[in-house]
Amino acid sequence: MKYFQVAQGVWGMKLFYVNVYMIANRRDFAKGWVLVDAGPAGSGDKIIKMAENLFGKGTQPNAIILTHGHADHSGSVPELLKHWDVPVYAHEFEIPYLTGQSAYPPADPSVGHGLMSLLSVFFSRSPVDLSGHIKPVNMAGGLDELPEWRVVFTPGHSPGHISLFFPLNTTLIAGDAVATTHAESAIGLLGDVKKLSGPPMYMTPDWASAEQSVGILAQLEPRIIAAGHGPVLRGREATEALKQLSANFNAIAVPSSGRYVDKPAVADETGTKYIPPFTVSTKFKAATILLGMLAGFMITKQIRA
Ligand SMILES: [Zn+2]
Ligand SMILES: [Zn+2]
């Protein structure tokens, strides 16, 4: 098992292509630690192992906090709840997707930029059912389980996306409000290509909100940026890259065409309310044909071998 240190009292682990984080409270302020995001289904054992390595055998977090409910960030919560009796927090706008009440808007494979975008059609839109465990985050008062960290509302990638910020050393846990790699490309995601980018294009249904959220994060001037996808970015370069991303959001982050580029999906506290219709671009048709050819090539190669 491989995990890495993000900052003092903060550790992360990459599970396949998504990161989870563990934050220890400073003793004078509160006890214990929290888990931020939970990785895809099947990651439970690895997360428990990492926790026991850091905090001792039989340890339990004070809470699990979800930056948002997408399946790659919430998938293993049910496994963890078999071992841990802890509350799970998310913003109230995420709760409909985490209780089976609503489904996220469909992914947009037409945004291009790599294989992950095309594969996104297979991603689950209704992740896990956490009814009875999930609680809304108190956005005004923050989390008792993590008193020194600020909870920042950063919607756009999902309607109730939140980020976590520690003002003392300006550590930002950004979830998918930004990515620190090319989240659309399999090479970017599985490798460790460092590049501050907007939220994963194929799963972002509201670009205007996403831009506002990046603006809010840029104003925090974080020196340490730990995102859901990609390696940790540090130092003045990280702060500057985030400012650049915010200033040039349309050019850097927003796909040139896509289902949600002109019209966002609309959601409220009961879930998805409106999904713009899907119009297929020529570029997307070409990409699908290319993927088909590649699949055909792989199959023939297998048959011959
Ligand atoms: Zn996501
Ligand atoms: Zn993600």
TrEMBL record:
<dbReference type="InterPro" id="IPR001279">
    <property type="entry name" value="Metallo-B-lactamas"/>
</dbReference>
<dbReference type="InterPro" id="IPR050855">
    <property type="entry name" value="NDM-1-like"/>
</dbReference>
<dbReference type="GO" id="GO:0016787">
    <property type="term" value="F:hydrolase activity"/>
</dbReference>
<protein>
    <submittedName>
        <fullName>MBL fold metallo-hydrolase</fullName>
    </submittedName>
</protein>
<dbReference type="InterPro" id="IPR036866">
    <property type="entry name" value="RibonucZ/Hydroxyglut_hydro"/>
</dbReference>
<keyword id="KW-0378">Hydrolase</keyword>
<dbReference type="Pfam" id="PF00753">
    <property type="entry name" value="Lactamase_B"/>
</dbReference>
<feature type="domain" description="Metallo-beta-lactamase">
    <location>
        <begin position="17"/>
        <end position="229"/>
    </location>
</feature>
